[in-house]
């Protein structure tokens, strides 16, 4: 099981500024490169880095892949069928409830909470509080074939952990996994940060989350 220390930083104002801010703070990238299912061997180049400000989790993804797609027309849609990066968070170890933050390459977001098999969408006003920047722009588009490099940045407020009373991430221990998928891309793929030992593709498996610790 992987472990990740999440540095506390300051100076955040907008999602678009997150890559430069993490550069200045020297926050290192982590690969999302585990191919868990041999029948889906394609492995685009994907990495992420993450920091926090106390009241926000800041995530920056970079991706290079053979095609991109952003068909989901609005938040709450089927973003996992597009070129999609995902962050699953379990606030309390030993508790079955977790959150899935799934965002396609146009910054369209899906946010649910609950147990495996019993998921519930976030209220719209909560989803709108998750700030996003996408290097490919924010408008939907059909699949574009050909090598493409793109970036995505998310600022996830404590309020987005909407079924828990988190006010400040500082010092907290949680469990999480980071994913890259594209179910309906020309070459489907299902990559994870922490390995998954299941017979077929499934990201809703908190038993295979890694450990994360938010710095003071």
Automatic annotation (TrEMBL):
One of its GO terms (molecular function) is carbohydrate binding. Coiled coil: none annotated. Residues 17-214 form the Carbohydrate-binding domain. One of its GO terms (biological process) is carbohydrate catabolic process. Pfam families: CBM9_2. It comes from the Bacteria. This is Carbohydrate-binding domain-containing protein. It comes from Phocaeicola coprophilus.
């Amino acid at each position: 099981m992987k472990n990740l220390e999440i540095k506390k930083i300051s100076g955040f104002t907008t999602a678009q500024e997150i890559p430069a801010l993490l550069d200045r703070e020297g926050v290192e990238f982590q690969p999302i490169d585990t191919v868990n299912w041999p029948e889906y061997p394609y492995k685009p180049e994907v990495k992420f880095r993450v920091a926090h400000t106390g009241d926000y989790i800041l995530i920056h993804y970079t991706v290079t892949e053979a095609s991109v797609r952003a068909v989901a027309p609005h938040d709450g849609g089927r973003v996992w069928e597009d070129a999609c990066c995902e962050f699953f968070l379990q606030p309390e170890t030993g508790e079955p409830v977790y959150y899935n933050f799934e965002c396609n390459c146009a910054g369209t977001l899906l946010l649910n909470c609950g147990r495996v098999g019993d998921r519930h969408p976030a209220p719209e006003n909560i989803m709108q509080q998750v700030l996003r920047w996408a290097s490919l722009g924010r408008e939907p588009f059909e699949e574009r074939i050909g090598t493409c490099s793109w970036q995505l940045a998310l600022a996830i407020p404590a309020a987005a952990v909407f079924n828990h009373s988190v006010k400040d991430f500082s010092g907290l221990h949680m469990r999480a996994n980071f994913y890259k998928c594209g179910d309906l891309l020309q070459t489907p793929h299902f990559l994870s940060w922490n390995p998954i030992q299941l017979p077929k593709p499934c990201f809703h498996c908190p038993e295979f989350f890694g450990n994360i610790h938010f710095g003071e």
